[in-house]
Queue: 4 jobs
Job 1
Amino acid sequence: MQTQEAQQKEIQISAKAQQINQQLVGLIADKIKQNNRGISFAEYMQLALYAPSLGYYQNGLQKFGAQGDFITAPEMGDLFAYGLVNSIISLDEKLSDHLLEIGAGTGQLAGDILLQLEALGRAPEQYFILEPSANLQALQFETIQSKVPQLIDRVKWLKALPQNFHGVIFANEVLDAIPCERIEKTESGWQQLGVTFKNGQFDWKIIDDIAAEDLPELLQGGAFIEGYISETRPLVDSWINSLSDCLEQGLILLFDYGYPQLEYYHPQRTDGSLRCFTNHQAHSQPLELTGLQDITAHVDFTQVAKAAIESGLEIDGFTSQAGFLLENRILERVEANHSSDNATNYAMSQQVQKLTAPGQMGEVIKVIGLSKKVNSTPSGFTLQDQLYRL
């Protein structure tokens, strides 16, 4: 694995990025100095991603698209939005009047959804966006304004979840950015890996023992070798509960990289799923390039399902992104948009490939549907029904 200096040289960090990195490293180092034991990895990840004005998702540096660090499904074109819209309109018409997107990225998905719903005569009364980053809010406004200016007055940015919400809530690649804890199986049992700071660099450090009852049930057995490393995400339970609390009636659709728990904590998955992304390159060094790279870990969807049930939500379905989008007729849109221009057709074909192929996003990204007081099930969960795997 490259050193931090080698990565910085390769990605040609700007003077602004270097300043952000140095300030954020200093901020986190001060936190560590205040606690002789070091800080938990979740606290490090929270600061690295969300520290005001400095964290990766707060600092205004480009993240999305070809010139950024990664491309999400909505950035590839409008097929993802098309599939999502078809699922939304399969429900009671009143539920599509109010939409809430959590973490809207560049605003591409919001713009495409609004355009497509308007074309169907189903433009929502309100489209809420929950986005903590002021920089991303400005980018989202610009994108939506350029795509669908006639509906921009229906878009409202929120600082917190609304109360008594009736409608559809959705989030694409948000769960995986909720800070996680890193754990390791050692000779003396499971231990929590934290972060310390020495010789001008962050480093790993065991900071605490973990009681068996604080672990997912699968990890409480003895099938894991010493040195087995994985992640837990305690904050998911309260996050799901907060969604349930705000939802009076409606649907929640969550899209993310992840597995059912049996696969997530498979004995052969010895190094977890923690990954970082910079310049479209993936690696597993989260303690480098602080504030300048995305840090993510896959989602334990069994945990999500259990948290949903405990919060009073119903589970409508669990499937792959491929199954969800294909059932929601994205191939029909490709056929309808067939062009005499070979380049356009090729671009659409590539978009389908990336969204649905097993080696791309098709299988590793999962979709879970949760609901409250909804009599019908949204389309998208029948073609590749994987609910039994949870």
Job 2
Amino acid sequence: MQPASLFALEVCSAILGALALWIVLRDPGSLPRRARILLLAPGTLLGIGVLQLAPLPTSWGWLGAPASEARAAIAGIVPEAAVPLAPWSLSPPDTVDALARLAAYTLIGLAAAVALRKERHVRQAALVIAASGTFQALYGSTEYLSGHQHIFGFAKEHYLSEATGTFINRNHFAGYLAMTLPFSLGLALTSARGRGSRAGGGVRGALRDWLDSTRPLALIAWIAVLCTWTGVILSYSRAGLAAAVLASATTLIVLRLGRARALALILGLAIPLLALLWLDIRAPGERFAAMGNELTSRTGRLVVWRTTLEMIGSHPLLGYGLGTFESAYGPQRSFAAPIRYGHAHNDWLEALLEGGIGAVLALAALLWLAVRPVFSRERGDREPPALAACAAGGVLAIALHSLTDFCLRIPAIPVLLAVLLAILARHAQDRAERAPTLRFPDAASRQ
């Protein structure tokens, strides 16, 4: 992301966050209790980042601060480089940048949790998320199948053999689609229930019934599902495909839609695959055959992960500093490897390297606290929480995808994640108050 665009995102998030805080101060009940709990995780990460920037005496080398070790090594060669104080972070400017981004995402999540106060607000947000994913899928698929391969007015330079939408990387494109897919799927599965036909209405009455129900919306939603799956397939992202399958399975399991609808969904998802094979394009699963060679090559991810784990053992408590992976990993990489990695291609490992054990525990707690209420059942839960199931599917999808890529380092994905967490926080609040569960509009709700 360009610095100007990132700065604009941070400024906008600061404005939204300030407005949200002003609303919360005037009306504390506007922020769900679950949202307050979830905010502890990014708050912990921010605290770790601030602590990493605190100046420490370089004589405290026994603490094992990465910056002190590096400066001591340099001072052994250039004595003038010795300084009395140094922060823990190996690269303070990178840590400041990472803190600014994290603060921006946190404020966006806070603003979303305050803004999504009513069920209709959550439904509107869900429709926007589904529409966003459908646009990305349609745009990426069209550019790929047409051979045009542009991102708006700019010709693509990378990943010319895959669909990427408005993203540069195919994996980030597929990860975004996997997060939005459950909303199109949930809308398709919950909007198909219409009212019974009017007696004596004939063809005209049946047509009126169909238009009055939400079945047209279900048809549009199914088209969105097929388009999104097409985009995932054409991305040729193996982790993206696995994440999309997990997101769909989560939605089906939580909504408890039965075998018939599950079978219909499987058959429906086979349509884009068969259509693409009929077009005689690259086989969607061909990259799985090369997985072993890619992982074990001297430039593969297993090498990066192994080196990252070795580095984590040196500074397990506070890490090397938020945003410092590239600075820390560069001197450690093998000189035989021609590729310089800017990320670990595993957000969980990268968080452990940069923020230590506390950072990973905060992320794991955030994931657990966010999705657990969706899978639990209590007395009084009369119908499945459709929107909460969709949000949980999206969160689990990106958690899985982040095991093999750096999706959370691309601003569009953590911004969407912040909104999904806000939806889950609202669902937990509604359950606590025994309010109607968050669901897509269906025919019964429109009568």
Job 3
Amino acid sequence: MIEKLRWGLVVVVAMALGAGVAVGIDELRAESPGSSTTVVEKVSPSDTSGVSATLDSVADLVAQVRPSIVRINSSGTGGLGGVGSGIVLNKDGYILTNNHVVSSGALDVVLSDGTAGAASVVGRDVGNDMAVIKADIPADKLVPAKLGDSDSVRVGDLVIAVGNPFGIQAGSSVTQGIVSGLQRTLDGNGGRPLRQLIQSDAAINPGNSGGGLFNARGEVIGITSAIENPSGDRVFVGIGYAIPINIASRFLPDMLAGRNIEHPRLGISLQNLTPSLARSLGIKGVEQGVMVMSVASGSAAARAGLVGGVGNGDVITSIDGKKINNYEDLATVVDSKKVGDTVQVTVVRGGSEVVVPVTLEAWRTGNS
């Protein structure tokens, strides 16, 4: 577990209509098919400088990408159901969406032209709120999306969001905006934060979840997943979040192969250390890093002997030789590892530097 103090209120959109999941974050919080014939289309990034959009060019962009976005209907218990969106990956019928869209119930997929077919879940990445499903739809009806490079996205880039807000019947809906922020972090499923999110002001609402955030070249750069929701009314207020497509691409082979994804954790709660905080707490030998506030019982960190405490706990300064200045640095390094990897955690303990080997464990739903 890795914990951090965050702000705001987020609503994860597009589960059952009228029954969204509100996630409060005003609190201390924690941290392939296996067949060789399966192909996911991905394109190389190119320079987007000077790209401008007239009304006609946006319409052309919409015409290009809309067939790649599907509506996902889920039927729950008692006849209650929900609606979300998905991104066509290939002509074999594999579709990328949010895990919360397909968390339960029977699934149907509807294309923008009205073609429909039953679907089933193939693989899940609960920690990143992603899933792959397979739809029983003829290949000649499917239009795979082009996956872009979310690492090349810049604040100010034009984007459009395509999905099915509020279950609108007449095909997928489109909104336009810009990328308004990068590297956002929000509370996610099972206690694991969603990280490196793309923030945009393209309007998204319940039903958009699992849909595509496209750049001006018609490439998917993100999976629309959540909205900032300070009022609690489940309506868009100008801040939406998308999971970067590069994160999805990293785990797609395993999900396509029917495997559920596990993510590593240390099992600690953290607080950024600054020079002024170090002085006020009387911490010796270090002025910047992350303080280990507490260690979860029985966790990887506990087994390794990491020490928690305000002012008298370990201060993590590097992992595997990579300098750790703050929580984001630590989360980035840990997320790049696999469950079972052993990392060398350098800490300052009582004014002296100590290297502690920690074998990373898996996040589990509800672990803290």
Job 4
Amino acid sequence: MTQKNRLHALGLSAALLAVTTTATAAPTAEEKIELLSQEVEALRKEIAAKDYQGSAGRVHLGGYGELHYNNLDSGNEIDFHRFVLYFGYDFTDRIRFRSELELEHSLAGDDQPGEVELEQAFIEFDLTDNHLARGGLFLIPVGILNETHEPPTFYGVERNPVENQIIPTTWWEGGAALSGNLAPGLSYDFAVTSGLAVDPATFAIRGGRQKVAEALANDPMYTARLRWTGAPGVELATTLQYHQDITQSEAAESASAVLAEAHAILTRGPFGLRALYAQWNIDHPQAEALGRDKQEGWYIEPSYRITPKFGVFARYNEWDTEAGAGDATDTVRKQTNIGFNYWPHEQVVIKFDVQNQSGIVDDDGFNVGIGYMF
């Protein structure tokens, strides 16, 4: 019987009780009405509890975090690098809200090393069973780590320098996007968003992230990705991105820029392999003079799960933020990391790696970290 029918039944019972009160010497009308009132109140509490449970089922909570200890030529440091809380809410089966709030380096404020950042906050709509639309602030669909960077999901204490300096992870923008499946195993993403605003004096890519904080929006950024996952344990993807003016200036001479990225992820039993290449091409005289009209990097990372809880890896990274200078100046940086991950629980990881870095600056040493996600 539904709650509505039960309430009708209780009303009918009350009427019958009122009629029979004068014909019996059983409990008085007042006593019977009191009993009915108690049952109605119990029913109301039951309905409220069910409504609450339904609402709770639409709420999603999560988060991740990581503590790092770095013992390197550049210095010794311990840092709670990231503390992230995730909140989501399903308005219906086809409309949902997703968000992430992040505190970097444990302490934020004036003259403090950290920042409080809104990394995601968007509404997502299912257009059909195979296509969806997204509007708000979201992670850009590029690379391996930019969308999936929770500590238990990758090897190494620090995120690899190629995706950190060239792509640059973590990277989010505000705007709109479409995603969907074109065929079994083949998906697409297309986004029109705010873009980078790099300093035309340096053309440093990572420093151009505006983080959607009163961001200059003179020229939008266009991002398109194709991804193939048609075979078990395989992901092949490529992203192409275009800025009409990566400086967001109103100068007569704009700096158009194109980012091209491709990567592969292979998992075969305990064996894993990740490989990525990314390259910027910037059309501007100052960028060319600095050798930063071309910026590129790549890495390859084999790994092996010795047991379900313990895995080892090696990663070779090579990147150059002044590749446009050619052989005239050796600006290539090279970094090798060798280490392990230990997962006492699938959502908790302890990491260690030895680092050897050469190039413009040598930075050798080791890194230790602990991280989690839920």
